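I hope you will forgive my troubling you with a question about protein structure. The record follows directly beneath this note:
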Amino acid sequence: MNAFEHSSPNDFSSDFSLLEGLYQLVVNGHTDGWEFEQLDSVVYERLKSAYSVVA
């Protein structure tokens, strides 16, 4: 388990922090590093699980 996944997926403040961190990396042009890739992956998975459609 890493620092980005230690809280529950339903924790609003954690979700906000993840999005803010991703936003700051993009604004500063730091999209080539491991930190951006990790945040992007975690945010994407949380969005996918929150908005997935059960068929």
Q: What stands out?
A: Helices lie at 12-27, 34-51. DSSP finds two helices and no strands in the chain. The mean pLDDT is 82. The first helix runs from residue 12 to 27.
